[in-house]
Task: inverse folding
């Protein structure tokens, strides 16, 4: 019964962590509208996979991995910010409508891009730590079956959110014309570019107002 308890709470945690709108959500929506639901969901699946990796660290309390993430926060943010800026530039220069047929190579790129962007954000680890404590599953690491159930739940919860988001975008795609799609693509690119620039500023100037807002809490770095 206890593994089921941890699994259900893991679903809640995974869903809550995935819901906040960010660059990956914009990518998921834009790719669904511009290509198809498979491309959009593959993007979300990459984020869900990264969330699951962070959940593993949080559930088992693997301190040495957490230390690596926190002490190398600058490099993670630098890489993530640069990737976001490059992706935004590519989106702004590419045609808004792409072929609807699934492309295995492109789908792999969709997956990896979301995985890298989500994986280079150590704040996700802090979010899981806070949520695990809040919902009473901080002790999951005491037993392997508890931790495994919690981690599986996180993956399911995150995957469900991305399925919902890409599904809603696919439904809206029926009423989106080429002109509207062009503007949606440009707006998405500008949002992603803004996120990338803010992350780079936070990396370069962690004590600046922007760095304080989107940076790691000081206690996490100690």
Result:
């Amino acid at each position: 019964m206890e593994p089921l308890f941890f699994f259900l709470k893991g679903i809640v945690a995974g869903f809550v962590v995935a819901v906040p709108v960010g660059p990956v959500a914009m990518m998921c929506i834009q790719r669904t509208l511009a290509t198809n639901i498979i491309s959009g969901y593959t993007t979300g699946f990459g984020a869900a996979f990264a969330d699951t990796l962070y959940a593993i660290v949080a559930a088992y309390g693997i301190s040495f991995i957490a230390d690596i993430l926190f002490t190398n926060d600058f490099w993670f943010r630098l890489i993530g910010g640069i990737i976001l800026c490059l992706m935004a530039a590519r989106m702004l220069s590419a045609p808004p409508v792409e072929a609807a047929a699934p492309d295995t190579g492109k789908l792999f790129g969709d997956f990896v891009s979301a995985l890298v962007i989500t994986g280079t954000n150590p704040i996700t680890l802090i979010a899981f730590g806070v949520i695990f404590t809040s919902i009473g599953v901080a002790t999951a690491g005491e037993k392997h079956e508890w931790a495994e159930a919690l981690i599986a739940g996180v993956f399911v919860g995150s995957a469900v959110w991305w399925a919902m988001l890409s599904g809603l975008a696919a439904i809206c795609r029926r009423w989106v014309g080429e002109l509207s799609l062009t503007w949606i693509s440009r707006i998405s690119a500008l949002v992603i570019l803004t996120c990338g620039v803010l992350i780079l500023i936070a990396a370069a100037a962690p004590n600046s107002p922007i760095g304080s807002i989107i940076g790691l809490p000081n206690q996490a770095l100690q």
About this structure: The chain has one domain: 2-221. The mean pLDDT is 80. The first helix runs from residue 2 to 18.
